[in-house]
Design brief:
alpha+beta; four-stranded antiparallel beta sheet; 12 helices; 4 strands; about 45% helix; about 10% strand; binds flavin mononucleotide
């Protein structure tokens, strides 16, 4: 076998292994290319246990540069981020987020914000009145921008051996978080992001995902006829994953159904619309 052939074979093996890890089944397709970026993306896992070790100088700025390199709607850059270092503030956010200890333990904790106040200030400086900011559209733009920026930071962190976990649960108490961080009207927390060196003594595997056939449509939205069977397969795969991670074996369909049938499962986030209105975003 030539060296090119053996490189191609190795890439095919790596891609098949990564795809198998993600779906817990053999790939139904051949990856036309394989590289370190794809390996990183398909190997993503959230990390909720961190070593007690500071991040090297420059890490924060590197992650923010990656975040700022994300696409942003109309180049408006409608997001900001707060580094929360104060231990008391971290403790409050951890408690409000359902006692998530990694919020306190991570060496770096960021809160990503949809920030429409900056555009308002810029417009005011130019003598304009920001009359569109009561609409839903700019809020969607700010939330999407914040999410894209944060995900770039996540990929950058993972590329240098760090682990991360998003903390959407801080929206349980979004107004309290906004007050804690001193946010002005029209700036709202979207989620937190804990970043640190993964604790190698705590298992962290690649969590399987739904079959591509469940999420991928061509031309028209058409759930597959065997969607229920594919979801049942996924329930089994996720349960196996949970057992391997020493977590309670749960059905994905149970969890996902609970979220859409039980208001209390939103843990406070069911009041988000009213909270956003109080934070200066009436969503008309
Ligand atoms: C917007 C967002 C909010 C999330 N909030 C939380 C959270 O509050 N706590 C937590 O432990 N994980 C949180 N997660 C992580 C998800 O639970 C995780 O991504 C999902 O279970 C898939 O697992 P994986 O990231 O390991 O592949 C959040 C993820 C996203 C994208």
């Amino acid at each position: 076998m030539s060296s090119i052939e053996s490189e191609e074979r190795a890439a095919a093996d790596s891609s098949a292994a990564a795809i198998h890890r993600r779906y817990r089944r053999d790939a139904a397709f051949r990856a036309p290319e394989w590289n370190a970026t794809l390996d990183l993306l398909l190997g993503h896992r959230s990390i909720r246990a961190f070593r007690d070790r500071a991040l090297p100088a420059g890490t924060l700025e590197l992650l923010i540069a990656a975040a700022q390199s994300a696409p942003t709607s109309s180049n408006l850059q409608s997001w900001s981020v707060v580094v929360v270092s104060d231990p008391q503030a971290r403790a409050s956010i951890a408690e409000w987020s359902g006692n998530q200890k990694h919020v306190v333990e991570a060496p770096l904790f960021l809160v990503f914000l949809a920030d429409l106040a900056r555009a308002e200030r810029v417009a005011a400086a130019a003598g304009g009145e920001a009359t569109t900011l009561d609409l839903i559209e700019p809020v969607v733009v700010g939330i999407v921008d914040a999410a894209l920026a944060a995900q770039n930071a996540v990929v950058a962190a993972e590329s240098i051996g760090l682990g991360t976990v998003y903390i959407g649960a801080l929206r349980n108490r979004i107004e309290d978080v906004a007050a804690l961080l001193g946010l002005p009207p029209r700036v709202v927390p979207v989620f937190g992001l804990a970043v640190g060196h993964p604790d190698p003594s705590v298992a962290s595997g690649v969590k399987p995902r739904l079959s591509q056939r469940v999420v991928l449509h061509h031309d028209h939205y058409a759930p597959p006829a065997d969607e229920a069977a594919l979801v049942a397969d996924y329930d089994a795969a996720l349960k196996a994953f949970q057992v391997e991670q020493n977590l309670p074996p749960v059905d994905w369909s149970y969890l996902s159904s609970k979220r859409v049938t039980d208001l209390a499962s939103l843990a406070g986030r069911q009041r988000l619309r009213a909270a956003l209105e109080k934070l200066g975003l009436p969503l008309r």
